UniProtKB/TrEMBL annotation:
GO molecular function terms noted in the UniProt entry: DNA-binding transcription factor activity; transcription cis-regulatory region binding
InterPro entries in UniProt: LysR_HTH_N, LysR_subst-bd, WH-like_DNA-bd_sf, WH_DNA-bd_sf
Record keywords, A-Z: DNA-binding, Transcription, Transcription regulation
Residue span, HTH lysR-type domain: 1-58
The keyword Mitochondrion appears for this protein: no
Presence of the UniProt keyword Nuclease in the record: no
Protein name (database record): LysR family transcriptional regulator
Pfam families reported for this sequence: HTH_1, LysR_substrate
CDD domains assigned to the protein according to its UniProt record, in alphabetical order: PBP2_LTTR_substrate
């Protein structure tokens, strides 16, 4: 069977739509339909019931998900490991939500390289939804995201919870309505919803950014205010470069770890999880600016 055909099947199964699957795969809807038709002919069974409002899996389609997922993951892992240099025995792929790179990933990679030098590391930085799709397609072994994913094929655990605080380059009280120098940092859908409730009269800001470090660099250089994880700005507040905005509401930002319930290489995945757990425990035990607050680790 063709791997691309199975990728099309998995995308339609997730979205319930041939059109949405085509858009995510960057191919035409007719191509998706043709690939599903080939699979159905090869398996001699119908995989989807086509309806006016979309498509739903048949019982055969539901049974086929596990085999298609395993095949796609095995293929992606084979592509990575066949071309490995002699110095490496395996390769693990980590997906990291863009705003989480500086918070955890460098220490995690260093820990793995020190403890398992025979294993190479591939890091993909993207937004949470894209990372979860790559994880489902077998292109990643595990991913750190802002999404509490409830897909049956994945195991998802909350790693820790950040506190987002409003800070500014000058001391001030919280204001309602338009704030000229407010920089809106997009910390995800849950933050956007909570922010809208806390500031119902706020108009669209002059500047919105998708990366925390981009927003922080901007206000440090040009002045202004924005929401950031408390541990990210703690040292800057102590140095007098930033100030808490008085009476401003705070928001919680949970971070989740997701990985396949049936991984291709359990030993490799466990190695990464053990090293991640050690990094989080070390960070929680220190008092420096990189420490994580409100952390609860449970990877087993």
């Amino acid at each position: 069977m063709n791997i691309n055909h199975m990728k099309a099947f998995l995308e339609v199964a997730r979205s319930g739509s041939f059109q949405v699957a085509a858009e995510k795969l960057y191919i035409t809807q007719s191509t998706v339909s043709a690939r599903i038709k080939v699979l159905e002919d090869q398996l001699n069974t119908r995989l989807f019931n086509r309806m006016r409002g979309g498509s739903e899996l048949t019982s055969s389609g539901r049974n086929f998900i596990r085999y298609a997922t395993t095949s796609v993951r095995a293929w992606e892992q084979a592509k990575q490991e066949i071309a490995l240099p002699e110095e490496l025995d395996a390769m693990i792929s980590l997906g990291v939500q863009l705003n989480l790179w500086q918070q955890i990933t460098p220490n995690w990679i260093e820990q793995m390289q020190n403890n398992s030098p025979e294993v190479g590391t591939r890091v993909v930085m993207d937004y949470s939804d894209n990372l979860l799709r790559q994880l489902m397609d077998g292109e990643l072994d595990l991913a750190l995201t802002y999404v509490n994913c409830n897909l049956s094929e994945l195991c998802t655990k909350q790693l820790f919870e950040d506190t987002l605080v409003l800070v500014a380059t000058k001391a001030r009280d919280v204001q309602s309505g338009w704030v000229d120098d407010y920089v809106f940092v997009d910390w995800g859908e849950e933050f956007r919803e909570a922010h809208a409730i806390a500031y119902p009269d706020t108009l669209a800001p002059r500047l919105s950014v998708g990366l925390g470090m981009t927003g922080l660099d901007y206000i440090l250089n040009y002045g202004g205010a924005g929401y950031f994880p408390e541990r990210m700005v703690d040292a800057l507040i102590n140095d007098g470069l930033l100030f808490y905005v008085d009476k401003a509401p705070m928001f919680k930002r949970p971070v989740y770890l997701s990985y396949p319930k049936e991984p291709i290489n359990c030993e490799l995945l466990n190695m990464a999880l053990i090293n991640l757990q050690q990094v989080l425990q070390n960070a929680n035990q220190t008092n420096n600016v990189n420490a994580f607050s409100n952390m609860h680790v449970s990877l087993s």
